[in-house]
Each structure stands twice: as structure tokens, then as C-alpha cells.
Amino acid sequence: MKKIIHTRNAPAPIGPYNQAILAGNTLYISGQIPLDPKTGELLKGSIKEETELVMENLKAILEEAKLTFENVVKTSIFISDMENFAQINEVYAQYFDSETAPARETVEVANLPKYVNVEISAIAIK
After folding, report:
1. 1 Cβ contact list (under 8 Å, min separation 6)
2. How many helices and strands (H and E) does the chain possess?
3. Which positions make up the signal peptide (predicted)?
4. I need a labelling partner for 45 at 20 to 30 A (CA). Which of 1, 2, 89, 123 fits?
């Protein structure tokens, strides 16, 4: 059985999907982009600022499910320009202990929703 996870502290979905689904002990978090959850507006700042907002959106969803970044076992990072990888990674690393960090892939893509620079999804377990 699946449970829909939704919080006002993360952006509302912009399509036919949910912020996250809890299935058993596994939480599947939809890709988050740098949307301000309060205004619904896209942040157009530095790549570090955009990545920080994405991570904070993920954090809000984890908290709604009563989890933390320690529970994350897998992330997927989609970026529009691999030249931004080091800066994205610098911000991302602040949210995880390097010894227990999740599995991950980072993929450069042609376009992302709303033409953002970074999108991150995650899978966490209780």
C-alpha cells in the first residue's frame, strides 16, 4: 500500500505526480527543482543557491515523512551543464556524512523542467 507524502514546505507538483510516495518502508521523492515553496517562483540565482534550495526542498519532504538525509540510500542528480558539477557537489556534500552518503548518479541532460540547471530526486528507507 502506498501513502502520499505532501508538505507545504516544499513546492507543489507542477504536473500529475506527488512530492513523494511512501511504499512500505521506502520513500520515493520526486525530482526537486529550485522552486520556492512559499511563492512557487523559480529561483534564478547562482548554481550553489539553486542547489541549496533543491536540497532544502528534499529536506522538507524527508521531514514530512519523519526521515532525515541519514535515511537516504540513493539520489539522482540531473544537471544542464557538467561544468557546474563541482559547485553542485560542494553544496550537496553539506547534507550528507561522507562515510554514510547514499549511492548516486549525476547525469548531464539537454533540458530540465522549466529549463532549470539542477534537479535531484531521492530514495530513502526507514
Report:
1. 23
2. 2, 6
3. none
4. 123
Supply the pLDDT for residue 81.
97
CATH code, 31: 3.30.1330.40
Domain tally for the chain? 1
The DSSP bridge pattern shows strands 20-23 and 72-79 to be unpaired
Tell me how far apart the alpha carbons of residues 80 and 116 are, in angstroms, rounded to a whole number: 7
Q: How would you list the strands of the sheet with 26-32, edge to edge?
A: 2-5, 20-23, 26-32, 118-125, 72-79, 103-108
Domain that holds residue 68: 2-125
- Cβ 88 vs Cβ 79: under 8 Å: yes
* pTM: predicted TM-score of the whole model, two decimal places: 0.96
